[in-house]
Amino acid sequence: MRCEARMYGLHGRVPAVAAILWLMTGCAEMHQMKFNNIEPYCEANQGMCTRLCSSFPTSPECEMGMVRLAEEITRRGNTGSVDGAGLATLRSGLSRTCTSGIARACAADQNLGAFLDAKEGARQNVAAAADQLRKSADEERAKLEADQALVVAATEACGANPATCQTRCDKGETPFCVVAATRMRNAKPPNLAEARSYFQKACDGGMQAGCRAALDIEQQVQGADSRANELWEQVQQAGDDIAAKSHAVDWALRVSPTLQTQMAMARMRKVAAASVIEKYCPAKSEFITATSAAEFTKRAADHCANHAPTSNEGTVLTIQCRAAFAAGCPAATPRAMPPAEDPVNTSPAWRTVRDAGDRLAQNRHQIRVRVDVNPTPHNMQEAEAYRRYEPRMMGEAYCPAKKDFISQFSADEFRKRAAAHCQGDPPTDEGLSGAQVPLPQDCRDVFALSCP
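Structure (tokenized):
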């Protein structure tokens, strides 16, 4: 009866020829043939074939639609819009179609089952991993809270004596290791290498706070090392340049001790001296601020002993290198800039007189560079042009701006602003070495000028 029902299908009773073929080939063969013949139709109308399953679940169209849907899910790697109930119905239909002798349905059912089992296994693994992570996070949080209480007690016990923390840490009291390491890390400048060692002791002793801090400080150490190397490169370049200039002066005077050579070398000595103040000293100061004076001494000694610069003729300049890196530097001038939100400091009147005064200071610096370093006829002419320009700048820009400021505020306010500006934020100009250098003295001289 089932085979006969399949012969009738969706479109009524089959022709007599089909009935004869049925009798000749048998039910299973006819079923397979109808299944195969319907695929082009379902390929063009997949949605129609699967929708027929609700009314005609045993029709060839429904069977082919289910097989193709199962194959698509397996190939795509996700079930798409098919929910759990839909998957159960699909697998039931595939099993029924497989039982009726359609091998492709058997394969589709087997592959779909394997895919769904793997998907469920993966879901369970993810859920288990998430549960484990939550459990680990809860345990770590509880341990951190307990560690923090111990660290607070150790901080109180240490008081202001860092030696107490280090001594008790060395005895194996790990909370004191965290306190000692924290103080080392927060020192000015920070002692990151020692701090890392003490945090690691705390971590090895089972303190989660020490383990976390050890990882964080390792990144800080790497960043500090990278920054120190960058700053040292600037110090090294400036020091090597001074050593090379010193050797060039000595070599030129030894080879050709003429008056002309002596004058030229005198100018080079001035440039070298300017390089110390304008390039070497700022680079050295920044390096020591980021590391320490001991680190500077160590690197300078290693550099001059093992990597000293060489002259054009191939001479290793070890002595000149040591002299250059031992050059003294003036104490840094503290910067005391007025607050930016100060209405007087940000007023147009102050900005106008400040800018005019800064241009005068730069003008004076250019005169000095040309006269002191290389007083050639051309440079002397330029210096004279700069000198003639100063009265014009005074009359057209600086003095009118100064009078306007004093009329709005007061002479005392002008003197106060000028002093703060020249100390904390003086104008800059290109120095003898080519670097931008501050001009605090030129600034003071200019802002002290009287106006008619």
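Residues 4-25, 336-340 have pLDDT under 50 and may be disordered. The beta strands are 428-430, 436-438.
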